[in-house]
Amino acid sequence: LAGGIILGVALWLRHDSQTTNILYLQLGDKQAPNTFYVGIYILIAVGAVMMFVGFLGCYGAIQESQCLLGTFFTCLVILFACEVAAGIWGFVNKDQIAKDVKQFYDQAFQQALMAESDMNNGKAVVKTFHETLDCCGPDNAVGVITPLWRDDLCPKKESFLKNLIESSNCHKKIDELFSGKLYLIGIAAIVVAVIMIFEMILSMVLCCGIRNSSIY
């Protein structure tokens, strides 16, 4: 059940409309940075393997097989080690992911403001960011005034004053998007780790109990 829940959460994160709209973008021959998906794929793999390993543990307990329970314990140790490594990787790269996406957005934004922007897809990339995240402009002076003079790039508000007040810079929105998603990944990883620790303890207790009962 835990494996199924983790797999479901990971698949939801993988196919979330906001992240897929942004991370599938392509600026010329440059693909949007999709390092974020590495953590998602690890969660998907862990969830799927947990479901299989959980079945192995249940079957081993029903059959009272020391061999199957030992295999179950070994698989859990390997999964736990992989998860710890993935957690360390995620902690190290959590700021870099948003930074790479912001740099990609800034490049597209600069191209969209150029006179020859119609010759590339910078404008389309920027509009996708703006519509998906409901934002406009980067975190600088140009970004602040962009909603006032580039209606073709920014989501249209009902009035000039509303456009000025409600427009939020895209750097902030990108940070919020990925920090929220990474927070969910972190919670899922912690839950899995706690469950795995209990599974390893209980499987060893059961395995030792079976071995001792066979002596008598």
TrEMBL record:
List the GO molecular function terms: lipid binding
Under CDD domains, the record lists: CD81_like_LEL
- Localization annotation: Basolateral cell membrane; Membrane
Report the record's disulfide bonds: C135-C170, C136-C154
Membrane topology, from the record:
Multi-pass membrane protein
Record field: transmembrane? 36-62, 68-92, 182-206
A family per Pfam: Tetraspanin
A Gene Ontology biological process in which this protein takes part is:
regulation of cell population proliferation
What coarse category fits the chief subcellular location reported for this protein? membrane
Question: Record's Gene Ontology CC terms?
Answer: basolateral plasma membrane
The protein's UniProt keywords, in alphabetical order, are:
Adaptive immunity, Cell membrane, Disulfide bond, Immunity, Lipid-binding, Membrane, Transmembrane, Transmembrane helix
Q: Which domain of life is it from?
A: Eukaryota
Family stated for the protein in its record:
Belongs to the tetraspanin (TM4SF) family.
Q: Which PANTHER family match?
A: CD81 ANTIGEN, TETRASPANIN
Q: What is this protein called?
A: Tetraspanin
